[in-house]
């Protein structure tokens, strides 16, 4: 199972890319608890954990791999997404987990993805380089919250195939 995590609270292109993956890969789960996570505090990273943290860590533990899609905000990761990543460290569920990400930004979002690479390195994940891709999604490539452009859908499917080969 592939866990799909958007680094954005908005229902825009990042969510559309992951909803598209979910359509293409029946064995995938969209994580929708980003907004529910409490602010990370190392003092709170102990039992009993907040239910939203338990849900996140359980979803990661159940996954064979994790695919992220995040925008850049003010030159780095959005705060809510960095908060999610902070909660992944203490539990260890993401350690050695294969991960990849799709960058859908029209401008590149290099700062966010450099930060993501750094954090995932500290978490001890296995970054699957072939499953890290820049696939810009212009507004006209999406409809009803999904990617409709056949070429872009094929590129997204290729990333997923490289993350979790058949």
From TrEMBL:
Gene3D superfamilies: 3.40.50.360. Pfam families: FMN_red. InterPro entries: Flavoprotein-like_sf, FMN_Rdtase-like_dom, NAD(P)H-dep_reductase. SUPFAM superfamilies: Flavoproteins (SSF52218). GO terms for molecular function: FMN binding; oxidoreductase activity. This is NAD(P)H-dependent FMN reductase. Residues 2-132 form the NADPH-dependent FMN reductase-like domain. GO terms for cellular component: cytosol.
């Amino acid at each position: 199972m592939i866990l799909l995590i958007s680094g954005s609270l908005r229902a825009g292109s990042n969510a559309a890319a992951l909803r598209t993956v979910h359509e293409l890969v029946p064995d995938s789960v969209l994580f929708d608890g980003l907004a529910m996570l409490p602010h990370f505090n190392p003092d709170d990273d102990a039992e009993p954990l907040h239910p939203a943290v338990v849900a996140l860590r359980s979803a990661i533990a159940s996954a064979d791999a994790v695919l992220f899609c995040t925008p850049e905000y003010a030159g780095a990761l959005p705060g809510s997404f960095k908060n999610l990543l902070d909660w992944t460290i203490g539990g260890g569920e993401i350690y050695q987990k294969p991960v990849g990400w799709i960058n859908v930004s029209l401008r590149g979002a290099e700062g966010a993805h450099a930060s993501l690479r750094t954090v995932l390195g500290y978490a001890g994940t296995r970054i699957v380089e072939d499953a890290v891709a820049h696939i810009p999604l212009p507004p006209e490539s999406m409809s009803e919250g999904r990617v409709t452009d056949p070429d872009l859908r094929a590129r997204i499917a290729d990333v997923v195939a490289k993350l979790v080969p058949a």
